[in-house]
Design brief:
alpha/beta; Ubiquitin-like (UB roll); Rossmann fold; 3 domains; nine-stranded mixed sheet; disordered C terminus
Length: 297
């Protein structure tokens, strides 16, 4: 007996074909049936959301949700969605273990369990991090982009000292002894104006490198200390031009290498130099006058 050959299998329907079929079936429904479906779907979604909300506020429900989420992460890990590599750009000061602790991730952690928003919040709470962005690059790479703070000066105010960055924001560290080479700016509003001042001074690096401190006067102008010994009084108007005049004088005549105590640049048409006060020499003692003879008592 001859066997009847199996009929050829119908070719698999392409995905767009399924969508066409679904759209055709939708059009064949009566208007009342379509209205029923349109009302049913939102109700199901709302009911599901309410059930999840209720479970999340009940201890037993929280445990069920946590277990379900954990099972989901483990299932994703079994499919290869785990952290295999962590790429960090922009890191200069923040150490790697601190970054890993903020990410709460290590090699083998399910990558879907890493929350970019939480990691961003944790990283931006670190002293040296100004901003952070975290991306999950599936299947197994976490990419971290950092923008770190750069120390500008030591800010002295209200009887304390703090390290500030180029925006005048305090870098919250306790030990900044490694930054003793930075200039000190003094005054309540000095932190917000320090970047502009230091940019002006940097126009003449050979002189700026000798600046050890700057005191803001009434929030209007600066007194700059050079070599921790000479006070330079800058004007309120056009301090850049005054600083350039002093730099030219120093290059040509080395005026600051003499016995100078202060330099007044507040007048546009002159420079006033004040020498250090010289203590008066003591008069040479003359011969002692003979004491008048008297009776010993």
């Amino acid at each position: 007996m001859k066997r009847t050959p199996n009929p050829p299998k119908a070719p698999a329907r392409p995905p767009f074909g399924r969508w066409r079929l679904a759209l055709r079936n939708w059009r064949r429904m009566s208007a009342s049936m379509r209205r029923g479906v349109m009302w049913t779907v939102p109700i199901v979604l709302v009911a599901g959301g309410y059930a999840l909300f209720t479970l999340s506020h009940v201890p037993a429900g929280q445990a069920i949700l946590a277990q379900a989420i954990g099972s989901f992460y483990q299932a994703s890990a079994s499919l290869g969605l785990v952290v295999n590599d962590i790429e960090v750009s922009g890191r200069e000061t923040t150490d790697v273990p601190t970054i890993l602790a903020a990410l709460a991730a290590d090699r083998g952690t399910p990558i879907l369990a890493v929350s970019p928003s939480r990691a961003k919040q944790q990283l931006e709470a670190l002293p040296w991090v100004r901003s952070a962005a975290i991306e999950r690059r599936l299947p197994g790479t976490l990419y971290v982009r950092l923008v770190e703070r750069h120390p500008l000066a030591v800010w002295q105010h209200a009887g304390k000292q703090e390290l500030i960055d180029s925006d005048g924001e305090v870098i919250p560290i306790k030990d900044f002894s490694h930054f003793a080479h930075l200039p000190t700016v003094v005054g309540e509003s000095a932190a917000h104006h320090a970047a502009d001042l230091l940019a002006t001074l940097a126009q003449h690096p050979e002189l700026a490198s000798r600046v050890t401190a700057a005191v803001e006067v009434d929030g209007r102008r600066w007194n700059v200390r050079i070599d921790n010994a000479i006070d330079v009084m800058l004007p309120e108007e056009d301090p850049s031009a005054a600083w350039s005049r002093l730099a030219a004088m120093e290059r040509e005549n080395s005026v600051l290498k003499h016995d100078v105590q202060s330099v007044d640049l507040r007048l546009p048409d002159r420079v006033v130099l004040r020498s250090a006060a010289v203590p008066p020499q003591q008069k040479e003692a003359g011969p002692a006058k003979p004491r008048a003879a008297g009776k010993n008592t």
